[in-house]
Amino acid sequence: MADKLPKDKTMRAALLHGVRDLRVEEAPRPERAPDEVLLRVRAVGVCGSDLHHYLEGSIGSTKASEPFILGHEFAAEVIEGGPLAPGTLVAVDPNRSCGLCEWCAAGYPNLCPNVRFAGVPPYQGALAEYITARPDELVALPEGFDAATAALLEPLGVAIHALDLARLKPMESVAVLGAGPIGLIIMQVARWCGAGHMTVVEPLEYRRNLALKLGADAAVSSWEEAKALTEGRGVDVVLEATTSPLGPQHAAEVVRIGGRLVLVGIPEGDEFTLNASLVRRKGLSIKLSRRMGHVYGRAIQMVGRGQVDLGAMMTHRFGLEGAPEAFALQADYKDGIIKSVVYPFGDD
């Protein structure tokens, strides 16, 4: 059930002050606009893009000029405002597109140049006790969903969007580069989209082991090993989900002549390497994946049918005061971590 708002108009929040400087402190509680809903944050997943801000201070030109609240993978419950009853558990789409531009009109809200994206400067995120959102950004959940699973519908949506771009055909061979949370979810979605032989490339052994447990046919530590499994032919489709500037080049090496490549990962330093002659001579089709479109309905169905195991991603759980530890562990790949989930009220 939704709590009563304290009279004090402040809240606890995890604010990023600089590179590797995340502090939990008092912050102003957001005031909801007339067209917004006030939400009590229940669970927040730590995403790889959050880590880019944590480790590099920015993603490309997007940089905070003052202490900032990260967090865009989250679930919350309604406090006040909007048509949903107080206490309703919701997943929240962090992408507030303008709805008016050419790209929104064409059905690509994820490409809106006027987007207000929660947890990306200057728009505050969900690593806090409270946040506001518009009613159209809320997705009420069926019975049986817990807050952490609801939060991870957002990365599941990213994976679904990536597979939409891949246009996978039944029994095509697939390689997924990177067995972090996004890569592991992409792998599971690809299987339900009809993938044939599935190879995962990941340098960390514990992540390779989890990939095998979740259904990969092979898990290797390098692109050379992945290509060798095909006797030099290459796979039909590669989905790249690493943070390495070399990830796209390795993906191009693994994919077959005339194959398809979807780049999902965000590289460290905001640049990647891709050999022009290789991709030209192979005649590759390359797409870059940005966030997602309207896919929450499909994400909910996949979870409800047991087609993806999101729980396997949630290796570490923290209260809000533990957010700095959550980020440090995940940034340094310590303690067998895949993904941290932060509970601002410590009640899940």
UniProtKB/TrEMBL annotation:
Molecular function in Gene Ontology: metal ion binding; oxidoreductase activity
Record field: transmembrane: none
Database matches in InterPro entries: ADH-like_C (IPR013149), ADH-like_N (IPR013154), ER (IPR020843), GroES-like_sf (IPR011032), NAD(P)-bd_dom_sf (IPR036291)
Cofactor(s) the record lists: Zn(2+)
Alphabetic keyword roster: Metal-binding, Oxidoreductase, Zinc
Limits of the Enoyl reductase (ER) domain: 18-342
Keyword Membrane among UniProt keywords: no
NAD in keyword set: no
A Pfam entry, by short name: ADH_zinc_N
Similarity field: Belongs to the zinc-containing alcohol dehydrogenase family.
Protein name: Enoyl reductase (ER) domain-containing protein
Organism encoding this protein: uncultured Truepera sp
Highest classification ranks of the organism: Bacteria, Thermotogati, Deinococcota, Deinococci, Trueperales
